[in-house]
């Protein structure tokens, strides 16, 4: 065991040296009495006296009692302590030190030594007082029958040791307080942006459904045209910071072999500041005493202890932030309207930083324990040690168990493991810091409080939305479809509220074998009646619960009713007011993300032009949605273009022929496949990817009579997968004067990354480009 410990000791020292080398360079010694006086704990002067008298024994002590009881009964010890404070402390420190000394004995020994220190200034005892080198081994072996005054050098060593310890503790917590201040500034910026946006919408009235649209630029509320510098800055910011992915063009798509998600550059800046602050605060500074009372002659032990303490404390400070970003009922979301996917990305990086700090904390303490002569067996039998090691192991295990492939392929397994291990980690940490007498419990209780708050609000949301009275069948879902790969949920609720585009809910099925399971669903549309509301959802079944629902619906003849519980609404609505043109782009099941906006925009009719582009591989899926949500009857004034991507060998005429006869639809012919929403008389640009041009016949029976080139407010079907760059370019070319365009996308990862790259390329002052104030890009991705 000792040979093994020695080898491990050597390896840990090498690893720790690599980790702490910058710290060693940044560390500073405190020569003599420090010139810089930080606010340390009260009674430090007394504690220096107590430390120098710690190993001294007096004849009037009762050996069988505990330390504080022995001292409280020893007049010689009390007199020596008071005399030390008289000689080594100023008047203020003396008074404060005696108060700390009295409170210590009250708390530890239940003995009141009195309020007046004069009773321990016995002239007779002080006459025989000895100046003693109390830190020597000779002094430890003696038993004194007189009052003792520690030598000044011994007292200074003890004082500097305690002062250096306090300064390091101040740094440990002060750096974390500064980190919270940094995050608070970021949060304040988000709140300010949210408030300004709300005031603009409230005062401008552009979002009101009973007014016609006038852009803020046209109305003069925003005048960037007169400020070339601000235009250039905003364009540069959106082109190179706000919009693009960190590296290359992958953002929604998984990067590095499909294992990780890369943030945008703006998200990376915020995450980078957070990581840089944590790294900087971990590395420096570590003040060190030239002569240390605790670790004489072993600066490596002293430094490893400081590093272990700081990384452990910083990890604890990061835990409430980690848990705050994990919940659905996220106060940060309410205050800032930042996206859930962005905060989820930040949550993962906070977890990585906290785990790294836990690992360094464990390694540093392992080195410290071995360096002070303990064995692994001895350390493992300490509860705080064993619980800390296991907690660190749990945190490390959570990282690979949270990687994107597992989340996408087995979400329910990921979720259950994540919750179980996270709660287990909190329990282990309570036992880990039990030895600290509750000093660090507050951070853990904050985590529990945030978790309880989140789940209580979930229950409140479920109760409000799902129940009108106890015992009644209040909320139920009518599920139809299944044959075309699409499920429609019409959920009846007795509660009436005002849904917003972008809202999503979590659906529970209480009368199943897994009633705790809940599934996110984006709201497609809604209707209000006197009895309540009907919330309509479109679901493309995946593996798991939704696939089981699909089989159940098919077995029931295409229609079934089930009792459900509904939790929500969650999500933020993108502000599409203030824009002359709106371009909504979706792919496959992502159409559910834009349908609420289509529904709202069709009702308001307050934009000069609204275009919808939907790329879909399934004929049944396309026909179902085009006959209902995207029908010209339900989307008046909105230009809808549906692309059959041919991934399943389908053609545009398949959709046209399958639509009801009363649906007015235009179908592309040869040479008319421009990949965009064409206007009568406009020159068409080829926007389909090479080799995917449509070869439809000019006449299609029985739908030929319905084909038309006029797409103003019409439905149009094309074959092939469009180029996102061409779709965006056509929309930009329609802008006149200072008109503004907003683009909202929701769909497959590759499509959204293509569109994001196209948006970045569209910023500029060259031909076919626009300034940053005229083009805004929003992206909805399924980040739960």
UniProtKB/TrEMBL annotation:
Signal peptide region: 1-26
InterPro entries hit by this protein: FAD-bd_8, FAD-bd_FR_type, Fe3_Rdtase_TM_dom, Fe_red_NAD-bd_6, Ferric/Cupric_Reductase, FNR_nucleotide-bd
Gene3D superfamilies: Nucleotide-binding domain of ferredoxin-NADP reductase (FNR) module
Pfam families in the record: FAD_binding_8, Ferric_reduct, NAD_binding_6
Membrane topology: Multi-pass membrane protein
Spans through the membrane: 178-199, 271-289, 349-371, 383-401, 413-431, 443-464
Alphabetic keyword roster: Electron transport, Glycoprotein, Ion transport, Membrane, Oxidoreductase, Signal, Transmembrane, Transmembrane helix, Transport
One Gene Ontology molecular-function label: ferric-chelate reductase activity
GO-annotated biological processes: copper ion import; intracellular iron ion homeostasis; iron ion transport
Subcellular localization(s) per the UniProt record: Membrane
Disordered, as annotated region: 668-687
CDD domains in the record: NOX_Duox_like_FAD_NADP
GO cellular component: plasma membrane
Main location: membrane
Residues covered by the FAD-binding FR-type domain: 452-576
Similarity field: Belongs to the ferric reductase (FRE) family.
Entry protein name: Ferric/cupric reductase transmembrane component B
Originating organism: Vanrija pseudolonga
Classification lineage: Eukaryota, Fungi, Dikarya, Basidiomycota, Agaricomycotina
Gene: freB_1
């Amino acid at each position: 065991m000792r040979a093994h410990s020695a080898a491990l000791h050597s390896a840990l020292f090498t690893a720790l040296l690599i980790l702490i080398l910058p710290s060693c360079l940044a560390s500073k010694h405190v020569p003599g009495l420090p010139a810089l006086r930080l606010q340390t704990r009260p009674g430090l002067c007394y504690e220096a006296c107590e430390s120098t008298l710690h190993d001294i024994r007096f004849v009037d002590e009762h050996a069988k009692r505990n330390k504080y009881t022995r001292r409280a009964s020893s007049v010689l010890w009390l007199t020596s302590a008071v005399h030390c404070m008289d000689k080594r402390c100023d008047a203020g420190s003396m008074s404060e030190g005696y108060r700390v000394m009295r409170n210590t004995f009250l708390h530890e020994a239940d003995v009141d030594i009195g309020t007046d220190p004069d009773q321990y200034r016995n002239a007779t005892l002080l006459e025989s007082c000895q100046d003693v080198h109390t830190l020597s081994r000779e002094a430890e072996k003696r038993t004194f029958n007189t009052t003792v005054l520690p030598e000044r050098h011994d007292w200074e060593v003890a004082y500097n040791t305690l002062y250096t310890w306090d300064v390091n503790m101040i740094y440990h917590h002060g750096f974390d307080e500064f980190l919270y201040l940094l995050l608070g500034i970021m949060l304040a910026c988000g709140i300010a942006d949210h408030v300004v946006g709300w005031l603009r919408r409230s005062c401008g009235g552009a979002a009101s459904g009973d007014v016609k649209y006038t852009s803020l630029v046209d109305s003069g509320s925003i005048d960037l045209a007169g400020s070339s510098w601000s235009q250039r800055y905003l364009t540069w910011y959106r082109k190179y910071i706000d919009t693009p992915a960190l590296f290359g063009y992958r953002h929604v798509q998984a990067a590095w072999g499909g294992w990780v998600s890369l943030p945008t550059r703006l998200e990376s800046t915020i995450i980078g500041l957070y990581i840089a602050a944590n790294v900087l605060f971990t590395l420096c500074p570590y003040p060190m005493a030239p002569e240390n009372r605790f670790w004489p002659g072993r600066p490596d032990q002293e430094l490893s202890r400081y590093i272990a303490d700081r990384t452990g404390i910083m990890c604890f400070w990061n835990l409430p932030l980690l848990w705050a970003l994990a919940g659905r009922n996220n106060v940060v979301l309410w205050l800032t309207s930042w996206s859930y996917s962005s905060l989820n990305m930040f949550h993962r990086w906070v977890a990585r930083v906290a785990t790294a700090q836990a690992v360094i904390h464990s390694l540093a303490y392992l080195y410290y324990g071995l360096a002070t002569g303990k064995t692994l067996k001895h350390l493992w039998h300490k509860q705080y040690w064993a619980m800390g090691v296991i907690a660190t192991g749990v945190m490390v295990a959570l990282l690979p168990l949270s990687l994107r492939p597992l989340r996408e392929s087995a979400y329910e397994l990921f979720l259950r493991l994540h919750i179980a291990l996270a709660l287990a980690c909190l329990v282990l940490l309570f036992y880990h810091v039990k030895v600290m007498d509750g000093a660090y419990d507050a951070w853990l209780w904050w985590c529990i409080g945030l978790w309880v708050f989140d789940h209580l609000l979930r229950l409140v949301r479920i109760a409000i939305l799902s129940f009108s009275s106890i015992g009644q069948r209040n909320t139920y879902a009518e599920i139809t479809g299944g044959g075309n790969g699409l499920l429609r949920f019409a959920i009846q609720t007795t509660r009436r509220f005002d849904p917003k585009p972008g809202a999503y809910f979590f659906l529970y099925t209480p009368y199943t074998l897994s009633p705790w399971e809940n599934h996110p669903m984006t709201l497609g549309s809604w209707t209000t009646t006197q009895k309540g509301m009907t919330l309509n959802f479109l679901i493309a079944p995946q593996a798991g619960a939704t696939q089981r629902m699909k089989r159940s619906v098919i077995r029931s003849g295409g229609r079934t009713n089930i009792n459900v519980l509904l939790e929500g609404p969650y999500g933020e609505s993108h502000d599409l007011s203030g824009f002359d043109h709106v371009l909504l782009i979706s792919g496959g099941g992502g159409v559910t993300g834009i349908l609420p906006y289509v529904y709202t925009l069709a009702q308001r009719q307050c934009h000069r032009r609204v275009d919808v582009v939907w790329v879909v591989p399934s004929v049944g899926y396309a026909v179902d949605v085009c006959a209902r949500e995207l029908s010209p009857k339900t989307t008046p004034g909105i230009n809808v273009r549906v692309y059959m991507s041919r991934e399943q060998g389908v053609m545009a005429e398949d959709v046209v022929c399958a639509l009801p006869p009363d649906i007015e639809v235009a179908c592309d012919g040869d040479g008319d496949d421009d990949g965009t929403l064409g206007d009568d008389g406009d020159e068409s640009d080829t926007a389909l990817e090479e080799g995917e041009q449509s070869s439809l016949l000019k006449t299609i029976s029985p739908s030929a009579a319905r084909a038309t080139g006029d797409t103003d407010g019409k439905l149009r079907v094309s074959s092939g997968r469009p180029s996102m760059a061409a779709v965006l370019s056509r929309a930009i070319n329609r802008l006149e004067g200072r008109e503004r365009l907003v683009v909202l996308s929701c769909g497959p990862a590759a499509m959204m990354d293509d569109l994001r790259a196209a948006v970045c390329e569209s910023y500029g002052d060259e031909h076919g480009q626009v300034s940053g104030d005229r083009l805004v890009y929003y992206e909805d991705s399924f980040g739960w």
